[in-house]
Amino acid sequence: MDGQEHPRELVEAPRGTLSGRVDEKGRLKLPAAVAQYFGALGEQKVFVTTLNTSTALIYPISVWKETEKMLEEPGEDADVRADVAFVANHYGEDSEIDAQGRVLLPTTLRRELELEKDDVHLVCYRQRVEVFGSKVYGQRLEAAKTDLQSKLKALEKKGLR
Fold first, then answer.
1. How far is the C-alpha of 86 from the C-alpha of 4, rounded, in Å?
2. What are the mean pLDDT values of the chain's consecutive 10-residue runs (161 residues total)?
């Protein structure tokens, strides 16, 4: 981008839930704040996938490479890591953010997550962007609101302001 290094720790991700739309060609038009976030990171190349088969994830390529290394580490849970990597690679593809701030979502991913020609909701979390289709977002919101008063009381005891 501008030839300068931009450490991820210093670049603030947008807060809140942002809205977007997947067009008929499978391109997600990123909200301006998300496109600016990737630009500030100096990242136009991304890896688009899912790990849970309900939401899409857009990783800056440098963050995905770190994730790949973690998934490739040996250990007692190597089979679990291999399964997660397999799912990520099955649904995932490299993509680039184009000049209009759009990202092409892989066809297999779009169809599995029912994201084709859909309004979507984006949340920046853990150095990635999570993309919720309208149906999954509604289900997640309803689940989060269930017994919300009890959840708030418990968290206020732990310091929630």
1. 34
2. 54 93 95 93 95 97 96 93 97 96 96 93 94 96 97 96 93
The DSSP H or E segment spanning 156 is helix 148-157
Cα–Cα distance between 32 and 147 in angstroms, integer?
Answer: 34
Sign of CA dihedral 96, 97, 100, 102: positive
Q: Cα separations (Å) of 143 from 42, 119, 133?
A: 36, 20, 15
Instruction: Give pTM, 2 decimals.
Output: 0.89
Using CA atoms, how far apart are residues 74 and 122, in angstroms rounded to an integer? 33
Q: Measure CA of the first residue to CA of the last residue in the chain; give whole Å.
A: 39
The CATH code of the domain at 8-136 is 3.40.1550.20
| Residue recorded with tokens 């976030």 | 37
Exposed / middle / buried, residue 33 (Cβ in 10 Å: 0-12, 13-18, 19+) = middle
Q: How far is it, in rounded angstroms, from Cα 87 to Cα 23? A: 25
